[in-house]
Predict the 3D structure of the following.
Amino acid sequence: MSTAAAFCEAGLAHFRDGRPLDARACYQQALGIDAEHTDAQHLMGLLFLQARQYNEALAWIVRAIQRAPKPEYLASFATVLQQYGRCDEALNVIDQAIQLRPDDAELWRQRGDILIQLARLDQALLSFQQTLKRAPHHHDALYKSGALLHKLERNEEAAAALDLSDSLFPNHAPTLRTRAWVRYCLKRFEGSAADGRRAHELDPDNAEICNNLGLSLRRLGRNDEALAWFDKAISIQPRFVDAFDNKLVALFQLHRFDEVFALSDRMNAIGLSSAVTAWNVSLAHLLTGNFEAGWRGRQTRLKLPSAPRHPQFQQPIWLGDDGIAGKTILVAADEGLGDTIHFVRYVPMLAERGARVVLVVQDPLHRLMSTLSGASLCIPRLAMGTLPAFDLHCPISSLPLAFKTRLETIPSGPYLPPPPESLVEAWENRLGARTRLRVGLVWSGDPHHVNDETRSIPLRTLSRILDVNASFVSLQKAPRPHDAAVLRERRDIADLTADLTDFTDTAALIACLDLVITVDTSVAHLAGALGRPTWILLPWTPDYRWLLDRADSPWYPSVRLFRQTETRDYESVVDRVREELRALAAAFGSGPR
């Protein structure tokens, strides 16, 4: 071995085999033969880069580039710049390297990494896609493409990329961990749990994997199993607040409320309580009838990361402590449509205290609420930019707190203004002669609701009641594709929803019905607030306002509640509804008209 090139080759072999001292000796010999040998200079730079001695690395690599700006030298230069946090410069350098060697997959991969550091995720994804064009089985590019697609909320594409990555490179814990979360986001909870278990086998000390596996099991209704994984996550990472919060929710779902409150106390004691914790504990208080603590804690909704942004006003917030006679108070919707319908019952009570109430509601509710008793002015949310002058404001969902509502002081309905007679008459004419019991149906709510999989049911499940001698009318707006297909097949459900333009139209149609059967949606609140007979199908752990272990609602006297048992299946709930409906339909057929 007598040439500089031979010493470089030998040194590179030592370097790759993890013998940096031997590699350095070879490079020094190469430089002794030729002090300007650029490969030897570059390789010396790589040695210092590996040792995190970035100044020395930069000096050697720049010397090599000055004599021969090869793409691999430029790539190493870009890597050093990345270590210094000079990512814009690194991007310029790697672009120069790509111009010299555009078909080099590794250069495109490095470009993607730099763009990730610059938080330019769309461009990073394009760079990894360029890598995969040149090297379709490039593991790092496949994995990072999947991870980026997930961050860009393109989860179907992310799942496909990660599926390919897993098929080519099985047992890669980061791929499995990321795919588990992608599948979770896509509500593929079985697959998510399976990936989580595989990832845990490969990386058993990763608390995030344990926590996410617990989440998947919880969404599958396997809360006892989920608890064990949240405990495991906490044992690995004792201050893992998300794992604590998720454990609290699992206990909530199991109705182990004493343990919910004890865990909350423990979190407070060690400084881990968050807005999410306080929110979940407030729901537990409300569900179990402790309204005093529940309404107070529910104010944390305004601080939740997931909460819609509530407008900030200069005027003070009113929470019931001061007199409001002669004052103008702005009451604005701050949650969902059902919440707005539920809480407008307090508007007449504000007026009774002498306040002038300016009410802001979601646009689909505006026409219905415009004649609400106690509201001096009703404004659609779309027009909030032109509000009149006001003295105080109160988010609509804070009104129960302001009025210190307790179980025994709930202001019950009906309280919504009746829909216009002309609309009711128009619907009556379309429905025809009332020869049988008329029943309105709603089987699903907002698909983006956090509890959608426990609240909504397929139309095919509800169709078990359709053999009852009644006339069925769909009140279901925007049915999901599989439900729409079932609805098209049925001749025993009248679907007039194309003409339901807002809640006033829906209220008028409900006024023509004898009964509404619905899951927990805004229509349930609408029918209850109108005082119409309403049967609500509820999950084992319902929304707080339906409380526990009762078939009536103190909020809505005309409502009956049909609850899941601990088995958490809706088939038995629908069977109970069917039997009750059969009796009601028979009574309708035999009674006076």
